[in-house]
């Protein structure tokens, strides 16, 4: 029986091109940090959100973020991603970004499984693939 | 007596560098579209979020987005921004992104007024400047 | 007989998310400005670099930039793009970015025409399409 | 006597938000890869291009790139940066980006040392700081 995974942690150095003229990381980049952690999480269990011949796509249907503390160039942040819900066709993550013991931001993201024939084609909601259900599960204590 | 403004509309062509390998605009770019509309709104009433000698900064404290429809290269989107709340020190916007009659995404953003001595300095919450209170007001019918 | 086009001008406001912690536009964004002008140039003559059913792609083979002056938030820049060379399978542009009478940067970009069956497929060099040869020509005085 | 350094290597996974609708990494991102390697190089010798209280800035004066091979999502690229010239006030790098034994791109970047009082202030060319001259030197065999 395979171990299922419900969370993932990685660290990431803030890059200069992610900062803006206010001297801090632009808020849109926090969503890229969350996504980078999601994709690294999938890779860590042998999956990819965009494998070369995969019929699946993973558009986002909802995201949110609360920002508590600014990030600056060369900060080493921890990104902690947890699966907080799984439905027939969707996956919901909660994500905490921290700098040492300081919580920098709390984010969430709901993504749905779709199939499509090509980049320009209509997307159609689809059941989560079995390979994903085999490896992922909802985190037990979803309250942080 | 000055006219106060509570909403702003602009159109924007989707750029190639905003798309990703799924053939659609990366979700993080929708927040940049909302911010571009915010800054154009401010300019339209003679204000700037980052005037050269201004002591004020406008960090975001919360944002959210619901995505309903993908955007593709060269789509001409309409961005409709409305002020839905003002407090002593913060401003909250609702933003609808549309493609013709199709609603593409609904976003929200809460930004706070801060003062700081420089890019590396601690930010301190501050009352919204009078110039802003003179020109902006909450939209009457905030429900869309 | 159709008029052929060899140059294009557009203006563009510097966005906040394009600036970095040095308070100026990140140098990588200048290439995005040049590309935005290229795509607007194509649209102005009824073409698209990525029409939905087009078999063509336009990867870049070489780019360069000399930076003379920084750009800041809300600067209104002029982007002047000229075709300086056309071969059987490639197009070369020169691009000048200016702020009023100040030259901000000079860039160049060589792009090749390729065909491919899909995003993951091998790209194969191809002759420039006739529709493009009908509308574009090399600028007469390529020296600025 | 301190060891001086003239080159640096790092690996980097291609992120989804760096790809475009052609299914490959947008060419502007290659410059961000080169810059990330530059900043990691500096950190590896105890320096920072933007230390909190540093009076120095490092604007780019010229960059170039030749692209030989596309990069795709989740490719693990090697970035090899070498110092190929140092003048009184500038530093020039050559950068090779590879995927296994395949050369993906060759880039160059010249950056100058400036001083300025703040983000909005005029930049003034300055001599390279002694701390940098103590740690960096031109690579012996600059031809690759």
Give a short overview:
Chain A contains two helices and eight strands, in the order E-H-E-E-E-E-E-E-E-H. Chain A has 144 residues and is an alpha+beta fold. In chain A, the strands form two sheets. In chain A, strands 1-4-5-6-3 form a five-stranded antiparallel sheet, with helices on one face. Chain A has a three-stranded antiparallel sheet with strand order 2-7-8, with no helix packed on it.
List keywords for this structure.
144 residues, alpha+beta, 37% strand
Structure, described:
4 copies of one chain form a homotetramer. The first copy, chain A, has 144 residues and is an alpha+beta fold. The first copy, chain A, contains 2 helices and 8 strands, in the order E-H-E-E-E-E-E-E-E-H. The first copy, chain A, has a 5-stranded antiparallel β-sheet, with helices on one face. A 3-stranded antiparallel β-sheet of chain A has the order 2-7-8, with no helix packed on it. In chain A, a hairpin with a 3-residue loop joins strand 4 and strand 5. The longest helix of chain A is centred in the N-terminal third of the chain and has 18 residues, at 27-44. The radius of gyration of chain A is 16 Å and the shape is globular. The two termini of chain A are 28 Å apart. Chain A binds chain C through residues 16-17, 19-21, 23-24, 26, 28, 52-53, 72-73, 118-120, and chain C through 16-17, 19-21, 23-24, 26, 28, 52-53, 72-73, 118-120. Strand 3 of chain A pairs antiparallel with strand 3 (60-67) of chain B.
């Amino acid at each position: 029986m395979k171990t299922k995974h419900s969370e993932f942690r990685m660290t990431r150095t803030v890059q200069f091109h992610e900062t803006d003229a206010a001297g801090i990381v632009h808020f849109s980049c926090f969503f890229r940090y969350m996504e980078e952690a999601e994709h690294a999480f999938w890779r860590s269990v042998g999956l990819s959100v965009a494998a070369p011949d995969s019929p699946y796509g993973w558009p986002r249907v909802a995201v949110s973020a609360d920002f508590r503390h600014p990030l600056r160039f060369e900060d080493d942040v921890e990104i902690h991603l947890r699966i907080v819900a799984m439905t027939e066709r969707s996956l919901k993550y909660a994500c905490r970004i921290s700098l040492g013991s300081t919580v920098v931001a709390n984010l969430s993201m709901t993504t749905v499984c779709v199939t499509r024939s090509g980049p320009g084609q209509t997307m159609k909601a689809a059941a989560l693939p079995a390979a994903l259900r085999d490896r992922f599960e909802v985190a037990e204590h979803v309250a942080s």
